Amino acid sequence: MALDLGWLTFGSGAVICVAIAVAYLVFGMVGFGTALVASPALALYLPLAKIVPLLALMDMLAAMTNIYKDGRKADVQELKRLVPLMVVGSLVGAAILLKTRPEVMLLVLGIFVVAYSLYSLSKFSPKRKFNPGAAVPFGLVGGVFSALFGSGGFIYAIYLSGRIEQKEGMRVTQTTLIGLSTLTRVILFLLAGVYADISIVLLALVLLPVMLVGVNAGRRITLRLTRDQFIKIINVVVLCSGVVLIGRYLGQ
């Protein structure tokens, strides 16, 4: 079992702490987006094989923190619609991952997400509400991309922003979905022996106070926002997610 954090100097520790604080500030506000913010900084010091299980573990803990404080505000009906579809989508995503090269899907999804978020941020976007049936494509696609690339939160955010009026209900429902998704991933990593590398767990514990500060700060900011301001922030994060997906495809 590895237990090596010798590489963690003052400089690298400061960079990682800032990245984690900002990532979980975003998570505390909108309920997703940590990989988007934290992965580039973590990649300077850690291999991807450690970043993914590290963020899965921390996302699960962050989601539990939000659910503990505000779980009663989650929209149970939307969770009932989305969770089974998320599970099915995850199974489909796992099958795609085993049998094909899914990289081109990064480009397709990235273009769609960028176009959608730009439209939503524009003055041409009408105020509309998705019907419950929209849970089917959004739930399935979110599950597929969670399994393929560990990033499906922004898909659920698009759906929930068109379904739930109260910003707190939207944020907590989103957080609950991410919590369930990451719990599944953590269990799989645990069964696969990934966390036998104790340095991953140790680093998560070291960063836990920074994560908690970020999550709580993000929650406090959200409480002061209007719903329109909250939706704009979600669309900006979704837009950044789309740009990152396109960048990942072009960088291969």
TrEMBL record:
Keyword Transport tagged: yes
Subcellular location(s) per record: Cell membrane
Membrane-spanning segments: 6-30, 42-62, 82-98, 105-122, 134-160, 230-250
Keywords assigned: Cell membrane, Membrane, Transmembrane, Transmembrane helix, Transport
Family, as annotated: Belongs to the 4-toluene sulfonate uptake permease (TSUP) (TC 2.A.102) family.
The organism of origin for this protein: Azohydromonas lata
Protein name per UniProt: Probable membrane transporter protein
InterPro entries named in the record: TM_pro_TauE-like, TSUP
